[in-house]
Amino acid sequence: MKGLHVGWVTVLVCVVGLLGPLGCQKPSSRPETSKPRAQQEGELASPSAKFSPSPPEVRCLKLGEEEAASVVYVQGYPLVFTGQVFPEAEEKGTIPDALEDQLALAWRRLEAILEKAGSQKEKIVRIGICVGQEDDAAPANAFVRQQFSKDWLPAITTVVTPLPYPKSRVAFDAVAYLEGQPEDVRLVRLSDDPNAPHDAAVCPQGGLVFFSGQPDKNPLPRAVENAMKALFETAQNLHVEKKDILQIRVFLQPMSEAPAVLNELRKAFPEGAMPPVIFVEWIASAPVEIEMIARLPAQADLGGDVVRFYNPPGVKPSATFSRVTLVRTDRFIFFPALLSRKDGSGAEQVDDIFAQLIEGLKVVGSDIRHLLKATYYVVDKEASDAVDDVRKKLYDPQRPPAASKVTIHGVGQAGRTVSVDMIAAPAVAAQ
């Protein structure tokens, strides 16, 4: 693997030295809950803490200079998972053509969803940006950055994909935290349409279940029915109920089939209970692949561990991904979609991405063995093969994260053919 760039490491070392083991700053909107650094270190070093005994905390770490991406660490808070949010004018059918207008409309709707869920934009820890063309990626990223202070930036993932609504040029999805302690999963919808997916799901503080993408090669819509059936069978084995599901992400082709997919998803859930949904067009032999995030049920069996990497009975385990990751902790680390810092072949880009990932994991008190969920976005076969090669070299075959690897139209930056999006847990929280 290629060596790390000295400048990037220097920035990380300086940040750690100044700000403690997580090297992060709190968002300016949060109440101050600072404690002596020694106490913070003691809490992070406590392997017995499945759920944090300390006050809730959120921090971010810039991975480089001022304009760099951020890793966000959150502990002790309930989380909000949104679906895909599109620009929506007050009068339907009047979506403006200009990207800046669409960005403003979509962002306004995202804020309204978060507010109804009990959160707000300053509490966003991760945001996904989908754009219909690569030229829109840079201005969309710039717009998102402008919504936050210089000391706070969510982990950002950008994907180039056709969108379900032809006039839309951009869509957002987000993970945020909120104050308070809801007792159960709560679904949030702005509209009164019972046939639409919910706009957000509120998850109480605690563990999560990450399901790898489940593909099916049958024609649509049968493929959706089969994929959901397989996911539900796996979920049932783990005591995960439909009411526990927080978010569904659908990789499909072509995007024009999104209405048919939604119709099948509607059938899969009790009337009016469809969770938030996100669409990305992929390029594959199968028409659809579907992944899920769910709340960890109290009766889930983790065998005494905080993290369980699970494969259903009869399914041959893979050394590079687990079908499901179950996590009994309230500490999560959200990485942005990492891109190579330099031009190069697919292998050179992947090497640089994983060099960044490994160093970033060290700074936030984690490592490769505590990755929970991975999404690998690739543009061509060379990048796809490089991702497979590095996973075989780096991953513990007993502990690969739940994952989806998808070929898409672009990763949001010219000259780049791969990005890697990760969710991790601190190593001490998973012992």
Question: What can you tell me about this protein's structure?
Answer:
This protein has 431 residues and is α+β, with helices and mostly antiparallel strands. It folds into 3 domains: 1-67 and 332-404 and 419-431, 2-Layer Sandwich (60s Ribosomal Protein L30, Chain: A), CATH 3.30.1330.40; 77-205, RutC-like (60s Ribosomal Protein L30, Chain: A, 2-Layer Sandwich), CATH 3.30.1330.40; 207-300, RutC-like (60s Ribosomal Protein L30, Chain: A). The chain is 26% helix and 25% strand. It is built from 8 helices and 18 strands. The protein has a 6-stranded mixed β-sheet with strand order 1-2-15-18-16-17, with helices on one face. A hairpin with a 7-residue loop joins strand 1 and strand 2. It is globular, with a radius of gyration of 20 Å.
The computed structural class is: alpha+beta
CATH class of the largest domain, anyone?
A: Alpha Beta
- In N-to-C order, the SSE pattern is HHEEEHEHEEEEEHEHEEEEEHEHEE
And the CATH topology of the largest domain?
60s Ribosomal Protein L30, Chain: A
Number of strands: 18
C-alpha end-to-end distance: 28 Å
